Amino acid sequence: MDMVKSAPALKYDGPIDPLDVSRAELYRDDTWQAPFEELREKAPVYRVEGSDFGPYWSVSTYKPIVEAESLPEIFSSEAGGITLADMMPDSDVKMPMFIAMDRPKHTGQRRTVAPAFTPSEMVRMKDDIVRRTAEILDTLEYGKEFDWVDTVSIELTTQMLAILFDFPWEDRRKLTFWSDWAGDIELVKTPELREERLKHMFECGAYFGNLWNQKVGKEPTPDLISMMIHSDAMSEMDQYEFLGNLILLIVGGNDTTRNTMSAIAYGLDLFPDERAKVEADPGLIGNTVQEIIRWQTPLAHMRRTATQDHELGGQMIKAGEKLALWYLSANRDASVFGDNADDIQVDRPNARRHLAFGHGIHRCVGARLAELQVSVLLEEMAKRRMRVNVVGEVERVSACFVHGYRKMPVEISKY
Fold first, then answer.
1. Backbone torsions φ then ψ of 13, nearest 5 degrees
2. Measured CA distances, 360 to 17, 64, 159, 406 (Å)
3. I need a labelling partner for 347 at 20 to 30 A (CA). Which of 190, 242, 306, 326 fits?
């Protein structure tokens, strides 16, 4: 059945606003820093009238983002979703997910999956994460070029997702494929790509539906599907809500950690003096993890929609208008992180204040697990005295939501 009505492409062909930071090429070419610096300096809450995603407010500094995130009843996740793109703008299909819900429903569904990410679960999972990380690092050949993104970042995060979902190991790369289709907001710009995206999302839903059916009536197990089945808040989800939450957990668990792991290679190569500090003192690894997450910010923005008129940063936001909260920019705010906020500083004293995991009721539920995976990768590299050297052109994600890398040619050496 064709679930998508035909609709015109969403490409905006009016005059380009140089401060429209939703333009994909800024991220593809890694040239987003200058317009954001101008926004932070001159117009921290700025109205963009014309973009591929329609008119929106750009919120680019730390303080108003924290304020907006602290007022979830006024700046809603549910009213318009969490990306600048209206992901299914012409479709009858809605895929609710708890990150794009407001209270009280958000509270119950988040509470259902939260036990998978408690400190005790981190202790339980750590040995396995160490073992799998060590295995992958030990297969790498020194002095031979390979793609860090595919060989290390994607493989480690996809393995972790497969474990969290109790997903068939031999099919785990399907998770990467679905995550890439789900998280790419550029795909909404043509009806054909929207239709193809929907097809892949339904394939994902059907596959997980089978996994769900295999666990119904069975004893609880410590995976996310079993947790949903055995909860009051999520056991009665319809297929679209189930699919929406799956997409959230797949993208949230995959793209974010994957792109931070890639930023370890790229960022430390870009700042060799900082890399030398952490190589000399592995005690800096914990802080380095926070600093790399801050510097990379693997999800560039979250979208909110105003439910009522409200003044933010000296601008009057009208009910129904959408805002992009640019975590990416807030994490470079000099008033919080100093004049060198564009640089990696592995001993930055307040690196942990970053907003890459969000703020308030929607703060990333899997933050501890992401930190653990990235810490273990740095620790295992340190044990092997392994250094990653970027040796060619890096290919980046061409989009303003997932902020990351497609390919990264590297060679490893010993220090």
1. -120, 20
2. 31, 13, 29, 30
3. 326
* Residue among 48, 63, 96 at smallest CA distance from 324: 48
* Full DSSP string of 44-70: SEEEE---TT-SEEEE-SHHHHHHHHT
Q: CA torsion, points 96, 82, 69, 101, in degrees to nearest 10?
A: -10
50-68 pLDDT, tens digit each: 999 999 999 999 999 999 9
Helix (H) or strand (E) holding 335: helix 334-337
The whole model's pTM is what?
0.90
Query: What are the structure tokens assigned to 365, written together?
Result: 């539920």
Contact 113, 249 (CB under 8 A): yes
Contact present, 69 and 359 (Cβ < 8 Å): yes
Q: Residue 163, SS3?
A: helix
**How do strand 310-312 and strand 315-317 relate by DSSP bridges?**
antiparallel
Structure confidence at residue 103 as a pLDDT band (50, 70, 90): low
75's enclosing H/E stretch is strand 75-76
Nearest to 155 by CA among 142, 138, 388: 138
Report whether pLDDT(234) > 90.
no
Residues 6+ apart with CB under 8 A from 100: 77, 78, 81, 82, 244, 248
Nearest-angstrom CA–CA distance, 13 and 31: 21
Residues linked to residue 388 through DSSP beta bridges, in sequence order:
412
* Strands of the 322-326 sheet, one edge to the other: 45-48, 56-59, 322-326, 301-306, 75-76
Report the chain's mean pLDDT, rounded to a whole number.
89
- The answer on pLDDT for 89 being more than 50 is no
Residue 197: which residues within 8 A CB-CB, separation 6 or more? Answer: 181, 182, 184, 187, 188
What average pLDDT does the segment 33-61 reach? 96
Task: Give the span between the Cα atoms of 339 and 148, in whole angstroms.
Answer: 31
User: Domains (ranges, CATH) in the chain?
Assistant: 24-414 (1.10.630.10)
Using the 8-state DSSP alphabet, how is residue 220 labeled? Answer: P
Please, which residues bridge with residue 303 across strands?
A: 324
